[in-house]
Amino acid sequence: MKKTVVLFIIGALVLITTGFWIFSGSSPVEPPELVSLVVIVLVVAFALFVGYKRLTSVKKGEPAEDEMSKKIMQKTSSLSYYISLYWWLAIMYFSDKPNFETHSIIGAGILGMAVIFAVCWLVFNFRGVRNE
Amino acid sequence: MNNRIREFRARHNLTQDDLAKKVNVRRETIVFLEKNKYNPSLKLAYEIAKVFEVKIEEIFYFD
Lengths: 132, 63
Prior knowledge:
The structure holds 2 protein chains of 2 kinds. By secondary structure, chain A is an all-alpha fold. Chain A has 2 domains: about 1-65; about 65-130, no CATH class. Helices cover about 80% and strands about 0% of the residues of chain A. Chain B has helices at about 5-10, 15-25, 25-35, 40-50, 55-60, and strands spanning about 1-5, 60. The mean pLDDT of chain B is about 95.
């Protein structure tokens, strides 16, 4: 239950800071910023979905986490870490281009990692984990 | 590894929800087990066998 609350708080904080970032600037939102915004919203939506699932499980009298969900999380973490290494390698390659700013590159790296994690989680949730 | 959870569940007139609560897992886990998308730990296999009052190998088997 505590983890679920933390998940909702972090989601809300990310949305609030993104809102500040988008609406505090005087210039209109550029397309690359819009892409980042959409990705952030998708990642937060994913986190809220996971939190909602945990909450409904608790309400039904089931555990928020069980051995299968822990196993899926383990598998997701290891695979997404592995893929993220390649993601950062690709980013390092493209960071040589002069029109990319450092904060944009780091932002793309972090957002990419979040997206990779979400995709891996979805894949394992559909495919299952047989460990054979 | 395959299993006969669905068959035993029907025999004992249990829903997936009921079985999940009895062995303290989420319903999703029972769904995944029945679809052979997840291999349970020895502890969970034992708990399930205990609910159906049979030996583990009567429920879980290899092809």
